[in-house]
Amino acid sequence: MAHFLMSTRIHMGQSSLEEIKGLGMKRAYIICDPFMKKCGRAEELASILHEAGAETEIFSDVVPDPSIEVVTAAIQGMKKFGPDGIVALGGGSAIDTAKAAGQLYGAMNGGARPMLAAVPTTSGTGSEVTSFAVISDTQAQVKYALRDQAMVPDAAFLDPALTASVPPAITADTGMDVLTHALEAYVSTKADDFTDACAEKAIRLVWQYLERAVADGSDMEAREHMHNASCLAGIAFSNASLGICHSMAHALGAAFHIPHGRSNALLLPHVVAYNAALDYKDESRALLRYAQIAQMLGIGGATPKAAVHNLIRQIRNLMKRINEPFYVTDCRVEKEAFLEQVPVMAQKAMQDGCTETNPRVPEPCELEGLYRELCKGGSV
After folding, report:
1. What is the pLDDT of residues 242-271, one digit of tens each?
2. Based on the structure, what is the number of domains in the chain?
């Protein structure tokens, strides 16, 4: 029996952040990165909460690919402050830190975590509505994809004005993360009509608005639609889960510190081709699903295989237009060092929880082959 859960109250549109006053928090613990504090965003949020009568504390030590140590530090801060609410301000790293820290803080206090509100400032992770949090073990060079329905935020505030200053490169990376979330949810073994509806809409929005958002950060129409696309894709994959593109991206990012969205973008065309089994005679379920997406986007093809070939070509064309790299060697990664890590990354990807719902069951050697395709000129 399948289930579709949507437990986050979503506030969307410009100035929607003002509605955070209605949550009734009395002691709000704001979790963000140093930039959010330096640029004044954290203080602006604190001021809004003060207007509603709340006391606030700002924890601003979040780092990209949040580590166990950062989560522990956030919990220690909560112990001292005693919040009845947590507000995550930032991208996926801030929201994932808040999810993990809040859940553990609640467990340590013998009860449920405090109310959790998410205020995303990038359009990519969809973490504001998902049950996932990705935390890094820096010593073991492993990213752990945690999943617990209790980590889903209670409220999300999608104010596109907060994304206006995001640089083009980060807008491109996070936008490709949205596309990957939606495509993987659509071909997941757990996909259903409800997750399909969210994934399809997210893909349409990315296809129409990502390039505009990258070209002009002040284009509020594009920013708002990309923010909504990110959330819709998050709803889709929180219910349907993901696949090997994310499993491999987790391992790749942990080993070489390539931004998560960019890791997904590098892998996506190769994973679509692999999942569709384009070299097989028979037409797989995944092939037909990708062909449906191609048709939805107006990408032609005389056969399903032709349509998927064209879909992959158009994904690459989009990547080129928004200046996404095609090879790890374009990401300041030495080819020899990368190839040395390929077997290790493949094993970690095999053990990643996202692999369980991939439409094609992989072997470690197949994942190694996909990784090697990321090297310019091949693996030799």
Report:
1. 999 999 999 999 999 999 999 999 999 999
2. 2
142-147 and 132-137 beta bridge pairing: antiparallel
**For range 102-118, the mean pLDDT:** 91
Asked if 62 and 70 touch (Cβ cutoff 8 Å), the reply is yes
Q: Which domain covers residue 44, as residue numbers?
A: 9-163
- CA 362 to CA 285: how far, in whole Å? 15
In angstroms, the Cα distances linking 8 to 197, 232, 255 are: 18, 12, 33
Q: Does 180 share its domain with 144?
A: no
Model-wide pTM > 0.85: yes
For residue 378, the model assigns a pLDDT of 56
The answer to whether residues 27 and 149 belong to one domain is yes
pLDDT for residue 377: 60
